Amino acid sequence: MSRLMLYHQMTSSSDMEMETNIECDSKQLTNNTTSDQPAKERTSEGALARRAEMYQEYMKQIPIPAHRGSVIPFTSWMGLGKSIKQLYGQPLHYLTNILLKQWDQLRMGSEEEYRPLDTIIHPYKAEATIWLMEEVHRHTSSHYHIANLWLSDPMHHAFVDSIFPQLRSKS
Q: Record's Gene3D superfamilies (predicted)?
């Protein structure tokens, strides 16, 4: 089974099923270990690192849209991200979703907190900024870094999108 298919199966399950998969992977690894395998690979952290690696490989395969649809009105960064996901039918990277949340949090307490963002930043520029960050996250992020972030955040599943676009095979 390819890593992409395995990742798709793992992420399309509920959170509880995902945790069960990690536990099963850990038990299976423990039962099938050889002296060659590092101890880290036999732990749930190792299973999480493998999931992060599959996730990163999957995200690398999704092409960034070359042609943009239309002007998207938005009041928040996360709102714009949600609209982009719906319009283009593809997920945004975990790190992009986290960044959008942080950008919205940065506005709290500012004079412009309640002003719609599309009246502050032009929608074309905002969307282009998200796609630029998305490209950086998809193509240059370390799966080790992602795994460490996931390990420190028990709610990381909330920022991993469950949109699965059809990928074109690279022939």
A: RDM1 protein domain
